[in-house]
Design goal:
This protein is of the alpha+beta class. It has one domain: 2-Layer Sandwich (archaeoglobus fulgidus dsm 4304 fold), CATH 3.30.2170. It is built from three helices and three strands; from the N terminus they run αβββαα. A three-stranded antiparallel sheet has the order 1-2-3, covered by helices on one side. The longest helix is centred in the last third of the chain and has 18 residues. It is elongated, with a radius of gyration of 17 Å. It starts with 7 loop residues before the first helix and ends in a 6-residue tail after the last helix.
């Protein structure tokens, strides 16, 4: 695989044609570290998925893809939205001195 050769990664990302397409991310020795996933049809940049505790890489990719309404998986997207709202409500001050 040529994943870490300059320019080759861009070719692989462009090869992700439809939602759910992925390719493995491997070291030069061939060890697979994760996969790049096109999470939704409208996304341009892939989401990078790696294995977790007691879950295979293919299961992690499938689960991540099923959680994506947009580019970012929905649990992460909701956590980001709610944390920003909390900060805006509790720490935003209009008194700038």
């Amino acid at each position: 695989m040529c994943l870490f050769v300059r320019g080759c990664r861009a070719l692989l990302i462009n090869a992700l044609q439809k939602s759910g397409d992925s390719f493995p991310l491997a070291t030069t020795s061939g060890r697979v570290l994760g996969k790049a996933l096109r999470s939704s049809q409208s996304s341009i940049k892939p989401v990078y998925v790696s294995v977790g505790h007691r879950i295979t890489l293919d299961t992690a990719v499938r689960l991540t893809h099923n959680c994506c309404l947009y580019r970012v998986p929905e649990p992460i997207r909701q956590a980001d939205i709610r944390s920003r709202e909390y900060l805006r409500c509790n720490f935003l001050t209009s008194d700038i001195t």
